[in-house]
Amino acid sequence: MEKVVILAEKPSQAKAYAEAFTVQNKTKTHIQLKPDHTFPDGAVITWGVGHLVELKEPHDYKPEWKKWKLDQLPIVPDRYLEKVSKGKWDQFQAVKKLFQSADVIINAADVDREGSNIFYSILRLTGVKNKPVKRLWINSLERDEVRKGFQNLQANDKDLRMFEEAKARQISDWLVGINASRLFTLLLQKKGFGSYLSIGRVQSPTVYLIYQRHKEIESFVSEPFYQIEGQFQAEKGSYKGLAKIKEKDKAKVQALMDEYGLKENEPLSGVVENVDKKTKYIKSPKLHSLSTLQSVANRRWKYTPSHVLKTMQKLYEKKLVTYPRTDCNFITESEFSYLVKNLDGYQKTLNVSFTPVSLKPKKRYVDSSKVQEHYAIIPTKSVPTEKKLSGLSRDEQNIYNEVLATTLAMFHTDYIYEETTLYTHVKELPFKTTGKRDVSQGWKELFPKPAKAKEKEPLLPEVHQGEEVDAKLHIKESMTQPPKPYTEGQLINMMKTCGKLMDDEGDVEILKEVEGLGTEATRSSIIETIKAQNYIEVKKNNVYVTEKGKMLCEAIEGTLLSSPSLTAKWETYLKKIGSGEGSRQVFLKQTGQFIEKLIQETPEALQQVEVRSTGEKTSRGSSKEPIAKCPSCQTGEIMDRYKFYGCSNYKEGCKVTFPKKLAGKTLTRNMIKTLCEKKKTKVLKGFKGKKPFSTALKLDENYSIKFDFESKNKQTTS
InterPro entries, per this entry (predicted)? Predict the structure, then answer.
C-alpha cells in the first residue's frame, strides 16, 4: 500500500484539488481522499499557510546582529538557515508528520519559481530525505485539469533547479536588504537623518523610476509655441486645419504669413487640393497576461494592481479563469480547441451575440512556441451559471468580463474606421486636416464604453477635390506640457519595460527577456511595499514620490541600487542556475562581493548628499518612539509608521502590523500598547457599523485585532 502526500501552497488550493476527487474525511491540517483510478490507495492533501518557512533573522545567528551598527557590517552568515514562520508551528508539525509517513510526496504548490522554493524549503526543514518527489504542473483548477495533472505528474529535476534559482534569489535579496538598509540608514543618521531607509534590489530602482519622472516634471519649463490655424467653411460644413509650421518664435510664423501675403482674421478663399481616404483595420488586443490586465483595470476602474491580483486569485479559485500569475499572452491549440467548443456559452455569459469570423487558430493569439510554464489568462471550460455569476462581487464581474471579452475578441471581426486627410490651400500655403469615421465596431462592441467617454472629433464635412471654401486664419498660441505622473497601471508597465531606458545593450536584452523589474506575481506587492515604506503616495490614481522617497533616491543615485541593471545582472546568472549551468554558491559569492564594494564606496559617496526632512518626527514623545514590544517576534518594537503601526523588525521578516483605524474608530498608541502587552483592551465606544457599537478588542493567535463582544468588562473608555 503506497501512501501519497500532496502539498498545496494554501488551504484554498488544497480544497480545489480535493473537489476533483472524492473526500474521505477532513481535519484542520489535511484532507484524506478515497481510493480511485488516480490514487489506488487514496492520498492525503496538506498545505502551507502562505510561507510556513522563512529565512532566519540576523539575531537568530548572532545576538549582536540585532542592533544596527556599522562595525557589524557586512552581515553574512556562514550558512543560511530557515525557521518555521511565526504562528505556523502547528501546521508545520502536521506537514512534517505526514511527510515522514509518506511513500511518495507531490509538490502541488504554484507552478513557478517561488512555488518550488516554498515546497523544498518546507521539505528540507522537516528533515525528510530520500523519498520520491513528483511535480504537479497545471494551469487551471477545474476538475478535469486537476485530475489530468495528477495522472501525468512530472519528475522533479526541473523543479529542483527552479528551487536552487529561487533560493539563490531569496538569500541574495535578504543579504542586500539587510546590509544596504543598515549601511545607508546609519551613515545618513550620522549626518542628522531622522528616519530609516529600507533598500531592496527591486523596490529601490522602482522608487527611482518614479523619482526620475518627478524630476522631469519639476524641471520642466512650459514654453509657448505658435502655429497657423485655418477655419474653413465648405458647402456642407466647417472644419479646421494647420499649416506645417510649429515655432517657438512667433516672428518666424508671422514671416511665413507675410511670405504668402496672408493676414489674420481677414476673409480669404481656399481650395481643397486633395482628399485622401484610407480604410484602417485594427485587430483585437492580444490575450491578457497579468500585467496587461492590471493596466487595463487600473485605467478603466482605477483598481490597484494588488487588488486586480487578489480578485483574479478569487476567480481562479472559483474555477472561472486560468492561472493568474502569467506573463504570457499566448495559448496553445489545446486551449483554443476548448474555447471554440464553448463559444456559445461564453457569448451568453457576456450577453453578446456574433458570428465568429474564423474558427481557425491565428498566430497572434495561438502559438505553442511562445508558451512556457503558463499560457495567457482565459476563461476556463466551466461556463458559469447565472447563480454563480450573481454571486460574484462587482469587481469580480468586471475583471471576469474583461477576460471573457478579450478572449471572445479574437473570434470577432476587426475594428474598421476610415481616416480622411484633407489638404486645403490658401494662396498656395497648404493646411492639413485629419478626421476619423467609424465603419464597423467589430470586436470593440464586446467591451463597455467608458462612462466618461471623450467627445468624438466632429466628423469632417463631405468635400470634394477642387472645391472652393471660405477661409479665416490666425496665429494659434499653445504651451508645451510637462510629462504626467505615472498611474499605478502605467507603473506596472514601466517596471516591465524599463530595460528600454538602459544604455548597455546586454542589460537591455536581458531586461527584455526577463521583462524588467520584478515578476508578474510580485510587481503589485512591490508597489504596495514602497507605499507602506512611505516612499510613494497615490493621489487620484497618480503616483508621486514623497520626501522620504526623494531622500532614498538621492542616497542611492549613481549606484546599482538605483538601476534595473542589477536585476539584469542577477537574472543573467539566475537563469544559468535554473538551467543547471550555474550554482547558488557562485551567485552568493558574487552578491557578497557586491555588498563589500558597497560598504567601501558608500561613505564617500554620501558625503555629497544633503539630508532632507522626511516629515517623520523624531523628537522625544513623538510618533517615532516605540509603543510596545512586538507581541510576535518579542525582539522588535511596535512603531508608528504614519499610516499604520508596525514592527521595527520588518526588514528581518516580522510582518506584524496594526491599522490606524478600525470600523471608523481611530486606534490610539495607548490602545495598541494595551493590546501588545495584555492581548486585550477594555470595552471601547465609537465603532461604526450599520449602527454605532461598543466592544473590547483582542489579539488572535496571528496577532490580528479582533472584536471581543463577549467581554464581561463593562467599563468603557474612548
Answer: Topo_IA, Topo_IA_2, Topo_IA_AS, Topo_IA_cen, Topo_IA_cen_sub1, Topo_IA_cen_sub2, Topo_IA_cen_sub3, Topo_IA_core_domain
User: How many whole angstroms separate alpha carbon 380 and alpha carbon 397?
Assistant: 15
Say how far apart CA 50 and CA 270 lie, in whole Å. Answer: 72
Q: Cell match 538621492: residue? A: 554
Q: At residue 62, does pLDDT exceed 50? A: yes
pLDDT of 472 over the 60 cut: yes
User: For the whole model, what pTM was predicted?
Assistant: 0.77
Quick one: pLDDT at residue 37?
Answer: 94
Query: Which neighbouring-strand residues pair with 419?
Result: 278, 436
Which cell goes with 129?
530525505
CATH of domain 303-409: 1.10.290.10
**CA–CA separation, 228 and 222 (whole Å):** 20
Give me the torsion for CA of 426, 427, 430, 435, rounded to 10°: 10
Say if residues 600 and 547 touch (Cβ distance below 8 Å). no
pLDDT recorded at residue 484: 94
Please name the residues in contact with 413: beta carbons below 8 A apart, sequence gap of 6 or more.
354, 357, 440, 442, 443
Is the pLDDT score of 192 beyond 90? Answer: no
Mean pLDDT confidence for 247-268: 95
Task: State whether residue 247 is helix, strand or coil.
Answer: strand
Ramachandran area for residue 516 (φ above 0: left; ψ -120 to 50: alpha; else beta)? left
Alpha carbon 627 to its chain centroid, in Å, reads 33
Fold classification of 224-283+418-479 (topology level): Topoisomerase I; domain 3 (2.70.20)
35: exposed, middle or buried (Cβ count in 10 Å: 0-12, 13-18, 19+): middle
Cα–Cα distance list, 102 to 2, 17, 119, 327, 606 (Å)? 8, 18, 15, 35, 56
Superfamily of domain 176-186+198-218+487-608: Topoisomerase I, domain 2 (1.10.460.10)
Cell matching residue 229: 490655424
Q: Is 491 helix (H, G, I), strand (E, B) or coil?
A: helix
CA distances from 143 to 148, 320, 555 (A): 9, 12, 53
CA distance 73 to 451: 56
> Mean pLDDT across the stretch 687-714?
79
Q: Is the model's pLDDT at 241 over the cut of 60?
A: yes
